[in-house]
Amino acid sequence: GCTHIPERVPLCLDLLPALRGEDTTKSFFQELVNILLSYVCKSFRRSSKVLDFHHPHQLREGLEGFSLELPDQPENLEQLLVDCRDTLKYGVKTGHPRFFNQLSSGLDVIGLAGEWLTSTANTNMFTYEVSPVFILMEEILLRKMQEIVGWSEEEGDGVFCPGGTMSNLYSVLLARYHFFPEVKTKGMTALPRLILFTSAHSHYSVKKSAAVLGIGSDNVVVVKCNDRGKMITAELESSIITAKDQGCVPFYVNATAGTTVYGAFDPLNAIADICESHGLWLHVDAAWGGGLLMSKRHRVKLQGIERAWSVTWNPHKMMGAPLQCSAILVKKRGLLKDCNQMCAEYLFQTDKHYDTSYDTGDKTIQCGRHVDVFKLWLMWKAKGSEGFESQVNKCLENAEHLFDKLKQRPDFELVFKSEPEHSNVCFWYIPPSLRNMSPGPERNRRLHEVAPKIKAKMMEQGMAMIGYQPLGDKVNFFRCVFSNPATQTEDVDYLLEEIASLGHDICIRTETDL
Amino acid sequence: GCTHIPERVPLCLDLLPALRGEDTTKSFFQELVNILLSYVCKSFRRSSKVLDFHHPHQLREGLEGFSLELPDQPENLEQLLVDCRDTLKYGVKTGHPRFFNQLSSGLDVIGLAGEWLTSTANTNMFTYEVSPVFILMEEILLRKMQEIVGWSEEEGDGVFCPGGTMSNLYSVLLARYHFFPEVKTKGMTALPRLILFTSAHSHYSVKKSAAVLGIGSDNVVVVKCNDRGKMITAELESSIITAKDQGCVPFYVNATAGTTVYGAFDPLNAIADICESHGLWLHVDAAWGGGLLMSKRHRVKLQGIERAWSVTWNPHKMMGAPLQCSAILVKKRGLLKDCNQMCAEYLFQTDKHYDTSYDTGDKTIQCGRHVDVFKLWLMWKAKGSEGFESQVNKCLENAEHLFDKLKQRPDFELVFKSEPEHSNVCFWYIPPSLRNMSPGPERNRRLHEVAPKIKAKMMEQGMAMIGYQPLGDKVNFFRCVFSNPATQTEDVDYLLEEIASLGHDICIRTETDL
């Protein structure tokens, strides 16, 4: 008889760099790519769910054998592919045309290709010697973005950062260093009490930066906004004067171009005038609004941005680049380096044989830095500036469509009546039981419960996803945002029908139930 | 006659989400994957070059039609694939078995698979609702790493950060908040003069953190090291006492487990004793050395790490995970959240339908955060803890091999004589003209020029890559590090031959030439 020698199931040790590992590696990746591309295709199909929701404890318990635990012994390659499939299955399709939950949405396939290449190149942005091509691409992208902001050829510097919050942190760090360079060595105790200004609708990262940098979040003055979410400039000016009268030192104003919730644009020129007359650093947080600079029709909303001393602009938001891709642009050349350099000799040797001004790592507060530029570079090649323009225009048209629909419907109510400036549209769904109630605390209390209840049902159902929040005196409302070019007006219509159908029968506790 | 209607060259607009875009998308990715996998295979082949060096101006000028400029109009898909090929061609193969230039090297193909999936999922680590699976994987990985560090089940918290410098920054931020929670709102001006301690051989990120956080780099006391690069604990203790005598407030000590250049391990238990007796926060920067915890043979070098209040550990270094993958581990649970939370209501609503303690974004100083955990999770599944152990052991065996070879060769000189503790080996190549010179300033001056000259020739040739630097009173020397499991002893031998052959004829200016 014959003896059966069972073939061993392939393990990761059979992949490269193993001898004769090329074929196993290629076939493993072929199967992986099939899984990934089938996910990509599904992400764009309206018939597929946006998510398949499970609670943390359900996932931890290991659904259908999907174990998250880390083993001592290797798993085989077949099982790894199953793990990959499961990871995607229980995740959220952020590229789905009906995912409206975040400012970053969409799955740009060219951007994705860029990310695959980036991770294959697996290198670090600190020196030219290990990232020659990516360092140059970063320089070219930053230069282009500065040009679009409107800075002259003689000015402008910048760096890509891990997210908009880090970019905003850079702006505060640089402003402080610009006015008080001794802070780098002596610390804040050598300085007077510094004050920052930002609007009530601005992103929380300004306060966070003040806390991290040792300035203190109490030293961030929150300037009031009008009903539309725009900073009231008279309030800014009087806050500056008050701070000065109290013996404090105002040094920095953050103006927002595209607020997180309302999508509002602060009046940049008026704010720039105030900063100029008081000698303050003007930062424009255009993390969300920066994309509109690509559009001839919409860039007027950022008029005055060229007067900023620094700008945050996240191509991973309105321009659809994969996460993360955020730039801090700085008008004053050389400041980034002066502020952050530590001249580590093991990395930034000055006796190298090439032009070491291309070793940009000493400009950053990181050491190693992920390559975030290639995907954006490749997308720019693929679309051209004009491609970004039409993408942005389309997203804003979707917002206009939603706004028009909402105006016509008696079961929805707009949070503010004016046309959307960015792609944010904020609204309440009013369930039948609330439609004839008069405004007041009881209606507010009940209305506050509506959005979370609808969202919970929506997530269980999994056919769409949208965010909600309260803001100031407004109780929980939905915020719809468009940054996914895959979204069509039919998806907008679907969203409203979905909310109305989920919300029609929800149970809101009356006062007597409490 | 017949009219020829030329077929349009496909553009990115023909890819998904275009109608009938699936086939074009799949075939575009198929071609891309061929390019990427052929690069991966080449990376492991010793016959291929590590790099094809060009100066910045050469790349900017557009080599063989490789234009880096950003167009207004779209490029076609064929051209994009050419761009991808060129991007890889002019880059550096950091996975090549003869790339010794950085602490992070190697191309782990499972890690790479993990990155491809991560970018396909394209989501954000701030909330459970958009990253359910990844949030749980992060929790499980952090827990595992804390267990390996030696913390009990009741203690331990953490977060993955964009690089070790950010992880170290977290440690200083948390220490400051732990002792002076009022700093978050009031800033540093409310605090006494704080002092940090770190060794002369430690990473520059400790000073950088002090500068960024408003503590000031002058308030970092640099503690002397012994010849082997280890912190002298008597010096630490006397520095602490001196600082106290001067009316300052010592609060934080950074001990390094695996220094950047020498690969030295500070005596953790002795430092922990000092920290304990003075009530100081002990941070262990094990960015580079943490990987040794996976090895039963080598983890003894980190004895005492369990006494740290926080630990930096970069799996993208010794464990070979793709860039970036760095964890800050914190012993005191809840501190990260208390220190960093800002409770932004648009993101961290508390009226969600799931357990919102899984919305970990408020623990971080970022807002959006890249998914850095999946690749590590997948690698752990693929290798098991034991796979990491043998990988680490192998890298250290390569270092031992290099050390033994160097001892035998008259044309090389070791920077310090003791056995390598980590995989760093530091040495000079001594060209013939210097071999019989007596020690002194002139020999040092000449020797200082040797490594840069050899490195320049090596990069032009492109067959290997290694770093050099001066340190303290040691003039430029080579630092070889091993973290790439693809590297074999034959590659180590090759490196020495390459250096000797490039260095044999180099021209060093004598004093009279100057």
From TrEMBL, chains A, B:
The keyword Lyase applies. It comes from Oncorhynchus tshawytscha (Chinook salmon). Belongs to the group II decarboxylase family. CDD domains: DOPA_deC_like (cd06450). The gene is LOC112259609. It comes from the Eukaryota. InterPro entries: PyrdxlP-dep_de-COase, PyrdxlP-dep_Trfase, PyrdxlP-dep_Trfase_major, Pyridoxal-P_BS. Keywords: Decarboxylase, Lyase, Pyridoxal phosphate. The keyword Lyase applies. SUPFAM superfamilies: PLP-dependent transferases (SSF53383). It holds the Pfam family Pyridoxal_deC. GO terms for biological process: gamma-aminobutyric acid biosynthetic process. The modification N6-(pyridoxal phosphate)lysine is found at K317. Its cofactor is pyridoxal 5'-phosphate. One of its GO terms (cellular component) is presynaptic active zone. This is Uncharacterized protein. PROSITE patterns: DDC_GAD_HDC_YDC. Homodimer. One of its GO terms (molecular function) is glutamate decarboxylase activity.
